[in-house]
Design brief:
Number of strands: 25
Number of domains: 2
Helix content: under 10%
Domain Laminin G: 183-363
CATH class of the largest domain: Mainly Beta
Signal peptide: 1-25
Pfam families: F5_F8_type_C (PF00754), Laminin_G_2 (PF02210)
CATH topology of the largest domain: Jelly Rolls
Order of helices and strands: EEHEEEEEEEEEEEEEEEEEEEEEHEE
Subcellular location: Membrane
Structural class: mainly beta
CATH architecture of the largest domain: Sandwich
Largest sheet: 9 strands, mixed
Radius of gyration: 25 Å
Strand content: 35-45%
Distance between the termini: 33 Å
Number of helices: 2
InterPro entries: ConA-like_dom_sf (IPR013320), FA58C (IPR000421), Galactose-bd-like_sf (IPR008979), Laminin_G (IPR001791), Neurexin-related_CASP (IPR050372)
């Protein structure tokens, strides 16, 4: 514990694991169960309704009760139909119909999603800002498979255009499956340290994957270094994700400049963003939200010597001077894996290779350490 004499163990919020379907998680092709059809009417809401029989509770696909679908009081581009799935789910497809036996249907629409029902994000089809194709009549079903899928609890359908001889009319379905979610919350002053086994065989391919939701625009997501000063750091800077890599041996004269790569923008929007870092010899694949950058690291060694420890949320190493800021991450990390190892699950089980720390200035006494407490917090 000498390496953490400058820190105190901190209370870190580990959120409860969501239930999930092993079949749906194991094979994405099985993740296409209808999610809306079994929901109660109270799970549906809308901007307005033409009458009580045109309410959002009648908007389930192929249903004929009520007036046979949702229709707003006024047909304009300010209307919306919303579903609350009850918990965060993986959504893989959507389907629409018009109002049963009517001249009311939507020809194009936008799809929005949210975790909490307040902060919304538009789903974009292949980077297009245009909406989804809708219906050409009242009763045929138009399916659209989402590539890639997304995770959310709330969905909103926003009509853009509709049958000019009728009104807005919609019946909808959402397809997907339950979603596994292991979440850890960082308060901007804490870090999680994962110590690798020095005696284990060096992996040929290293993969780090996670999702993050940032509450602030700056902060360290992860830092990894080897025993000779080689290191990689992933940092959020002004809403952009910056990847730093130094493949030189710090004990030898530097022969190459550190690699700096920036991906993404507006990543501090309080939505989930995915990250995957893959190291194979000196080949590095860096992926943010489905966008991948491939590059070759340069250095004296044919292998990036990064086999000592990985820290998440901050850099718990005093007395080092880096060329980037030390601001720690404030937000949530989800489904944090290193070579298939569930880091958050290890933390929940108090495994010895996991340390949870409060970043501190100076060197407080070892006696300041306090027992680690895991709290169950609402999502």
């Amino acid at each position: 514990m000498a390496s953490v004499a400058w820190a105190v163990l901190r209370v870190l919020l580990l959120l409860p694991t969501q239930t999930w379907s092993p079949v749906g998680a194991g094979n994405p092709r099985d993740c296409d169960a209808p999610l809306a059809s079994a929901l109660p009417r109270s799970s549906f809401s809308s901007s307005s309704e033409l009458s009580s029989s045109h309410g959002p509770g009648f908007s389930r696909l192929n249903r004929r009760d009520g007036a046979g679908g949702w229709t707003p009081l006024v047909s304009n581009k300010y209307q919306w139909l919303q579903i609350d799935l009850g918990e965060r789910m993986e959504v893989t497809a959507v389907a629409t119909q018009g109002g049963y036996g009517s001249s009311d249907w939507v020809t194009s629409y936008l799809l929005m999603f949210s975790d909490g029902g307040r902060n919304w994000k538009q789903y974009r089809r292949e980077e297009s800002i245009w909406g989804f194709p809708g219906n050409t009549n009242a009763d045929s079903v138009v399916h659209y498979r989402l590539q890639p899928p997304f995770e959310a609890r709330f969905l909103r359908f926003l009509p853009l255009a509709w049958n000019p001889r009728g009104r807005i009319g919609m019946r909808i379905e959402v397809y997907g499956c339950a979603y596994k979610s292991e979440v850890v919350y960082f308060d901007g002053q804490s870090a999680l340290l994962y110590r690798l086994d020095k005696n284990s065989l060096k992996s040929i391919r290293d993969i780090i994957s996670l999702k993050f939701k940032a509450m602030q625009s700056n902060g360290i997501l992860l830092h990894r270094e080897g025993q000779h000063g080689n290191h990689i750091t992933l940092e959020l800077i002004k809403g952009k994700l910056v990847f730093f890599l130094n493949s030189d041996n710090a004990e030898l004269p530097s022969t190459t400049a550190p690699v700096t790569l920036t991906l993404g923008s507006l990543l501090d929007d309080q939505h989930w963003h995915s990250v995957r870092i893959e190291l194979l010899d000196t080949q590095v694949n860096f992926t943010v939200d489905q966008h991948t950058h491939h590059f070759q690291a340069k250095g004296e060694s044919s292998y990036l010597d990064l086999n000592f420890e990985i820290s998440f949320g901050g850099i718990p190493t005093p007395g080092r001077a880096w060329e980037f800021t030390h601001k720690s991450f404030h937000g949530c990390l989800e489904n944090l894996y290193y070579n298939g190892v569930d880091i958050i699950e290890l933390a929940k089980k108090h495994k010895p290779q996991i340390l949870m720390m409060e970043l501190a200035h100076g060197l407080p006494d070892q006696n300041m350490q306090t027992p680690l407490t895991l709290h169950q917090a609402p999502q």
